[in-house]
């Protein structure tokens, strides 16, 4: 089963498991009556995310998880990210766009046969680096994470 419901203080809390996202064991919590979604490490609001490729995570999985959250959210929904400031549906849409755009760029670079060093030198996410890079996920680390993810998706079993 991929979800669990609990009833607490007059609210229904749904824990929803998502596959291969931040890791292979992520859950987000939807507080239905309160109209709140707690994302855990699936959302890093206003910053590059950590996607743990070694623990079964993938960019596509995070995007799919965000899509599930967006299907539950409306303009009044409060989104509690695992990292970053409290956000809303518009913030979640912006986060999804960041993931989709940077992932697509990286996929094209890997498909073109670029090495990770060539990709780093090209600074493919320079338009995001100034606002999204932070102490743990620097611009370089984000490139390396997305490079590994794209290489794994394009060449399963080789990374």
Describe this structure as you would to a colleague.
By secondary structure, the chain is of the alpha+beta class. The protein is 42% helix and 23% strand. It has 5 helices and 6 strands, in the order ββββαββαααα. The protein has helices spanning 59-72, 89-111, 116-122, 126-132, 139-154, and strands spanning 3-8, 11-18, 26-31, 36-44, 78-83, 87-88. A 6-stranded mixed beta sheet has the order 1-2-3-4-5-6. The model has no long low-confidence stretch (mean pLDDT 96).
List the SSEs and their pairings.
Blueprint: E1 3-8, E2 11-18, E3 26-31, E4 36-44, H1 59-72, E5 78-83, E6 87-88, H2 89-111, H3 116-122, H4 126-132, H5 139-154
Parallel strand pairs: 4-5
Antiparallel strand pairs: 1-2, 2-3, 3-4, 5-6
Helix pairs in contact: 1-2, 2-5
DSSP strand (E) fraction? Answer: 15-25%
* Percent helix: 40-55%
Low-confidence stretches: none
Count of extended strands: 6
Specify the number of helices. 5
Describe the structure in brief.
This protein is α+β, with helices and mostly antiparallel strands and 159 residues long. It has five helices and six strands. It has helices at residues 59-72, 89-111, 116-122, 126-132, 139-154; strands spanning 3-8, 11-18, 26-31, 36-44, 78-83, 87-88.
């Amino acid at each position: 089963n991929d979800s669990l419901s609990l009833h607490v203080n007059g609210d229904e809390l749904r824990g929803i498991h998502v596959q291969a996202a931040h890791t292979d064991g992520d859950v987000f919590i939807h507080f239905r009556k309160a109209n709140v979604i707690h994302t855990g490490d699936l959302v890093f609001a206003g910053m590059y995310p950590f996607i743990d490729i070694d623990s079964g995570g993938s960019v596509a999985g995070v995007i799919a998880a965000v899509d599930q959250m967006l299907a539950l959210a409306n303009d009044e929904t409060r989104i509690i990210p695992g990292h970053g400031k409290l956000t809303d549906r518009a913030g979640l849409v912006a986060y999804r766009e960041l993931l989709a755009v940077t992932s697509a760029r990286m996929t094209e670079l890997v498909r073109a046969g670029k090495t990770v060093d060539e990709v780093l030198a090209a600074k493919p996410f320079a338009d995001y680096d100034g606002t999204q890079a932070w102490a743990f996920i620097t611009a370089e680390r984000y490139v390396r994470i997305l490079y590994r993810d794209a290489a794994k998706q394009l060449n399963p079993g080789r990374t």
